[in-house]
Amino acid sequence: MHIFDHKKELMSFLQKERNNNRTIGLVPTMGALHEGHISLVKKALLENDLVVVSIFVNPTQFDKKDDLEKYPRNLERDLKLLGLVSENIIAFIPSVDEIYGKDIKSKTYEFDGLDKVMEGEFRAGHFDGVGTIVELFLRTVLPNRAYFGEKDFQQLQIIRKMAASKKLPCKIIGCPIEREPHGLAMSSRNERLSKTTREEASFIYETLQSAKSKFGTESAKNITDWVKDGFEKNPLFELEYFQIADEDTLTPMLKKQNDTKYRAFIAVYADGVRLIDNLRLN
To answer: Do residues 90 and 7 lie in contact, with contact meaning Cβ atoms separated by under 8 Å?
Structure first.
C-alpha cells in the first residue's frame, strides 16, 4: 500500500498510473473506518485497477467545534485495516495545512435547493464544506469513479450536482447502507455511543421500516406525526427531524405522485451523538 500526505506527490504518482492505462477509484473518508467504508473500498477495487482512500477530518463541514474535536480518529488502525484489504490501495492522509493552508474556509456553491432542507436546515454551511473538500479531492485524484455511501443520501445527491455543474469527468457512485446486526446504520460516530444505547438504537431503523409499511396507505403527515409520537415516548433518543422527500429533488412530499421515488430521512440525538439514516419507501 502506498501512502501520501502531499497533493503534488500523489498527483505525480497517479499520472504515471494513468499513462499505463490503469483506472482509478476514489473513496473519500474522514477515517475511523468501519465495515461500511470497507464495503465501498471493496466495490471500488472490483471496478478499478487502483483505489485512493482519503482520510481527512474536514473542519469546514462541521458546524459545531466540539463535534469536530470529538470526532473519532485512529489513523494507525485505519491504515492497518486498509492494508488487510488489498495492496492496490493508495492512502491519502493530508494535513489541514496541506488542504487549506492558513485560510480554513469553504467555497460557496449553488446546489439548486438540495442544501436547504433536512441537513442543510440544521447544519449551517455544512454542504459548502462538503462540496469544497470533495471537489478538491476529485481534482487532485482525477478518478474514473468515486464512491459514497447512501447513509448520507442528501450529501450524495449534492455531490452529484456539484460534479455535474463543475463538469468533473468522474462517475459518482452511491453504495447501499451497511448496517450493524441490530439495524443501526454503520457510522464512525457509533463509537461514541454507550453499549446499551448502541443496541437500543435499532429503534431508529425499526421506525424507518414501520414508516415504509405505512407509506402505502397513510399520508406523509400521519406518518410523521406517528414517528414524532414514538420518539417522544422513548427517553433515550431526541428526534431532530423526520422527513419524507422526493429522492431526486429532496423536496418534502405533499401529495404522493406515482412516478416519483420517495425516501424517509431521519436525524436523531443519542448520548449527545447525532445519528442520521434513511430508507427508500417505494
So the answer is: no
3-state secondary structure of 265: strand
Whether 37 is catalytic is yes
H/E element holding 91? strand 89-92
Residues facing 219 on adjacent strands: none
Task: Give the Cα separation of 187 and 265 in Å (integer).
Answer: 16
User: 25: exposed, middle or buried (C-beta count within 10 Å: 0-12, 13-18, 19+)?
Assistant: buried
Q: Is the pLDDT assigned to residue 214 strictly greater than 90? A: yes
Taking each helix axis from N to C terminus, what angle separates 75-85 and 35-47, rounded to the nearest 10 degrees?
Answer: 40
Strand partners, 237: 270
Query: Which of these is catalytic: 2, 6, 34, 37?
Result: 37
* pLDDT tens track for 222-268: 999 999 999 999 999 999 999 999 999 999 998 899 899 999 999 99
Question: What is the number of other CB atoms lying within 10 angstroms of the CB of residue 59?
Answer: 17
Q: Grid coordinates representing 183?
A: 439495524
Short-list 150, 171, 160, 101, CA closest to 130: 160
CB 248 within 8 A of CB 164: no
Host H or E run for residue 270: strand 262-270
Closest by CA to 246, choosing from 201, 281, 203, is 281
